[in-house]
Structure formats: structure tokens, C-alpha cells
Write a structure and sequence with these properties.
With 203 residues, the chain is of the alpha+beta class. Helices cover 33% and strands 29% of the residues. It has six helices and eight strands; from the N terminus they run E-E-E-E-E-H-E-H-E-H-H-H-H-E. An eight-stranded mixed sheet has the order 1-2-3-4-5-6-8-7. Helix 3 runs antiparallel to helix 4 (138-153). The longest helix has 18 residues, at 117-134. The protein is globular.
Length: 203
């Protein structure tokens, strides 16, 4: 499943797998290649078996070299794997968003806070507020202050990473506080996979 050819022409191939008894996890490492077999990037994914027998995955690492970015490899690769995980009964996929665009990209892909969501959201609100202040975006600042107050008062109305990534967005803009604040951010995310889709049978 980790070896596939994408619409962009790039393909993935597995170069190494190993089992970690302590984590009860399989690590899959691989290379991304161009149609003429040039190296275009690398990836690492993990599969965990938990004590209750359930399965989960981790999008541990993926890097596409700059010359080959912008063609949708990462999105298609992750989407194909996620469909396979769902079809084979995986409960969730986790990420550690801490590289370049990762904090923003995983937010746009629907990942939620993995742990301590109130603290995670509060930290991200502060980052995005700094960006909004830098550009004097008072509407975004007011929206962020309202979100922060709700967290402080109740801690049950917590904005998702996706919602925060939208702060300050306007049609035609290439940069806005939510996007810039989540770029190069560091947070742990999880996506709970749709149990209704697990009946699919994907070999």
C-alpha cells in the first residue's frame, strides 16, 4: 500500500521496514521518485497495534524536495493511505506538526488537537494574534479574543485547528493571520477515522 504512483507522476517505494517491540509498532521508510527515477523526497509512516487489538497510524515524516513541490503528491499520498486505513479498521491517524508548512497543512486536512485541547488552542491563538497585530487586523484580533474568552470561561467551546487556520481569511488573499500563525507551529494532532467506512474491503 505504501508503494504507489500519483497523478503528478511521482511515485513512492518502500526502502526499509522494522518492528519495534517496545512500541509494538512497524516503521515504514521510503523514497519518493520522479518518472525518470530521480530522488524527489522521503517518507516515514508508523503502524501501531494497541493492547486492545486496535490499530492506529502515524504520519511520522514526509519531505518533498522543493523542485517537486506544488504538484499535490503529499495530499494524494496521505488521502490514499487514509482510505486504506479506514478500510482496514484503523481507529485514528496521528501527526506531530512541526516542520515548515506542517502546522497549517495538517490543520487544513482536518486534524484535531490530540491532547489538552484547551491549552493547545490557547497557545495557537496567541501565535495567530501576534500575526494579526503585526498586520493591524483588528477584526481577526477581536475574533481571537472572543475565542480565548470562551476557553477561559468554559473550556468546552474550543476552536479546532481548521477553524483557527481560517482566522483573517479573505477572498484573493495569499496570506492571512490564521495561515501565517500556524506555519512553522508545533502541535500534536489526531484524526479519528470514520467507523462507517471500515466495511470497505481494500486489499
Amino acid at each position: 500500500i505504501y508503494e504507489m504512483r500519483m497523478d503528478s507522476g511521482l511515485s513512492s517505494e518502500v526502502s526499509y521496514t522494522r518492528y519495534d517491540e517496545y512500541e509494538n509498532a512497524i516503521t515504514i521508510e521510503g523514497v519518493i521518485r520522479t518518472p525518470d527515477n530521480q530522488r524527489a523526497g522521503t517518507f516515514t509512516r508508523k503502524i501501531y497495534t494497541h493492547t486492545d487489538g486496535s490499530l492506529s497510524a502515524e504520519n511520522y515524516y514526509l519531505k518533498v524536495e522543493p523542485a517537486y513541490q506544488g504538484h499535490g503528491f503529499a495530499s494524494e499520498f496521505n488521502r490514499n493511505l487514509e482510505s486504506w486505513y479506514i478500510a482496514n479498521g484503523f481507529s485514528s491517524v496521528r501527526v506531530h506538526a512541526d516542520i515548515d508548512k506542517g502546522g497549517y497543512s495538517w490543520a487544513r486536512d482536518g486534524f484535531d488537537w490530540e491532547s489538552n485541547p484547551a491549552h493547545s488552542a490557547r497557545t495557537m491563538i496567541d501565535r495567530i494574534r501576534d500575526e494579526a497585530s503585526r498586520t493591524n487586523n483588528t477584526a481577526a484580533i477581536d475574533q481571537l479574543d472572543d475565542m480565548a474568552q470562551k476557553i477561559d470561561d468554559l473550556e468546552d467551546d474550543i476552536p479546532t485547528p481548521f477553524e483557527l487556520s481560517n482566522i483573517g481569511w479573505e477572498p484573493g488573499k495569499s496570506e492571512w493571520p490564521g495561515r501565517q500563525g500556524m506555519m512553522n507551529s508545533d502541535w500534536y494532532g489526531v484524526k479519528n477515522l470514520n467507523p462507517n467506512a471500515r466495511a470497505l474491503n481494500v486489499a
